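Quick bug: TNFR-Cys domain-containing protein output formatted oddly.
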Amino acid sequence: TRLKVILKRKSRLKVCCALAHSKPICDQTEFLHPNGTCVACPVCKPGDQLSGDCGFGDGGEHVCIPCDDGTFSSDTDVAPCRRCTQCSLLNRHLVTACSPTRDGLCGQCLPGSAPLGSTNCIYTCCVVFSRMNDLLHLKYPVPSLIM
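Here's what came back:
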């Protein structure tokens, strides 16, 4: 609450006491309840996510729903499901498939590839060329193959 001052025309000052309700500022995991208070967003179990964004005052109507295919959530929280790691894009064998509650697990490099480096503890593999001629054709393509 705060004191509200109203200025009238012709330099008359009228001061009145009024309650001016300011909207509360909700944090990143709260929505504004119709009663004017900030309330915690629903927390979803692993394998679920909220049906929409919730936080900073918005989203009180959302409920927990299962993760979409190809996504997972391993924590109990308000975060959306994350996309599953695609081992084939990393040139790695799939050891354990992704499930709604855990990410997939990648294994060794696929045949014909070798470890390249590390990105967030997920190693990528690059294709190894068996002959120098293969590398030259990639660097200087044969004109008939250029479209």
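Actually, after a second look the formatting is fine. The chain has one helix and twelve strands. Closing.
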